Amino acid sequence: MACGWKLDMACEQIVLRLPGWVEEFLDERGERFGTEDERMRLIIELSQLNVEHRTGGPFGAGVFEQQTGRIVAVGVNVVESYNCSIAHAEIVAIALAEQSLGCYDLGAEGRPTHELVASTEPCAMCLGAIPWSGVRRVVCGARGEDAVETGFDEGAKPSDWVGALQSRGIEVVRDVLREEARAVLRKYRESGGLIYNARRARRGQRS
Amino acid sequence: MACGWKLDMACEQIVLRLPGWVEEFLDERGERFGTEDERMRLIIELSQLNVEHRTGGPFGAGVFEQQTGRIVAVGVNVVESYNCSIAHAEIVAIALAEQSLGCYDLGAEGRPTHELVASTEPCAMCLGAIPWSGVRRVVCGARGEDAVETGFDEGAKPSDWVGALQSRGIEVVRDVLREEARAVLRKYRESGGLIYNARRARRGQRS
């Protein structure tokens, strides 16, 4: 077969990495985050640093052991740097957590209960990914409408997305440090950050 | 920081590869697939081979240039083999296509129009990923209810998901070789294939 992708072996694998600054950042912050606010503060800081380091959009996420507060994995948006529209913060955090635990089910029996902390409420794609991941709780900072206000696109979420998660036994906590999280979105917009999307002429896309 | 994930550098990157048999399979099939049926037949065959080779669930997907029928990338479900709940066929195909083209927007100006062909209608996560990818058309084989009938979980999709895509200018074509695609799902179930999910006790998960 003579087509380009076949000849380019790199196209047969997907590789996504966290930006280089993340490791040092986490080293300085420690391993356990006892309260909801502590976890969210870390994740908001990640979202802000991702903008400051110009490594992606203003979104961060993390997977924590719910009881102990141990951090299992974090994610930031790396859509632009990896040319990958799938690489939203929540997706990166979930995939890294599953890899770290060697299991595609973060809710598997005999394991600690896990929660996802996201600096902004999930877009339609990330929302769809949450039940598949096995996390039992989702903690959100900024609201979806805060992202929309900034110019991002949430996608087509079920009207009662919170209820849809809760009906699957996944608890949803909203508005944790919402104003701090929202401030990062606004700052990104004001600084002229790219509100990229696949249909630029029509609307901004969430990351 | 002494936590496990920090020490394990592998956890700072996500790597997903297509199974080894895919390359040879595509070599034999050529580069261009002129009709909808030809494209779907290739993708259904991928879904079937993924089961036969025991490399994942009964789902395949591909990104094609809509006009020329040139294949840009394919995906199969590799959730189990990579311990990654995100690694559905559509996600893998989209990410590989974007990587191949060096662009997170398959609908970018000056590029050919792209379409996603999926052996089964997308689950909630993959549905959410479609607008972000920039594909302008989605061609589906088996229906979501065929997957549910087999024991898989679709997730919480908007009730009019077809209309939601169309309102964004993304055409949706359903039921292309539906019975052939459905037969792969049924055979998988009958052969005792794993209907894995993150909440096994409650319901099967789509892949």
Q: CATH superfamily of chain A, called what?
A: Cytidine Deaminase, domain 2
Question: What's the CATH class label of chain A?
Answer: Alpha Beta
What is the third-level CATH name, the topology of chain A?
Cytidine Deaminase, domain 2
CATH architecture of chain A: 3-Layer(aba) Sandwich
End-to-end separation of chain A: 35 Å
* Poorly predicted segments of chain A: 1-10, 198-205
| Shape label of chain A | globular
Derived from helix and strand composition plus strand pairing, the structural class of chain A reads alpha/beta
Largest interface: A-B, 81 and 80 residues
Largest sheet of chain A: 5 strands, mixed
Averaged pLDDT of chain A: 90
Number of separate helices of chain A: 8
Strand count of chain A:
6
Count of the domains of chain A? 1
Which percent range fits the helix content of chain A? 25-40%
Radius of gyration of chain A: 17 Å
List the strand order in the largest sheet of chain A. Answer: 3-2-4-5-6
Helix and strand element order of chain A: HEHHEEHEHEHHEH
Specify the oligomeric state: homodimer
Beta-strand content bin of chain A: 15-25%
Key descriptive features of the protein:
globular, 207 residues, 8 helices, Cytidine Deaminase, domain 2, 5-stranded mixed beta sheet, disordered N terminus, alpha/beta, disordered C terminus, homodimer, 38% helix
How would you portray this structure in words?
Two copies of one chain form a homodimer. Chain A is built from eight helices and six strands. Helix content of chain A is 38%, strand content 16%. The longest helix of chain A has 17 residues. With 207 residues, the first copy, chain A, is an alpha/beta fold. Chain A starts with a helix and ends in a 17-residue tail after the last helix. Chain A has a five-stranded mixed β-sheet, with helices on both faces. Chain A has a single domain, classed as Cytidine Deaminase, domain 2, CATH 3.40.140.10. At the A-B interface, helix 1, strand 1, helix 2, strand 3 and helix 4 of A face helix 1, strand 1, helix 2, strand 3 and helix 4 of B.
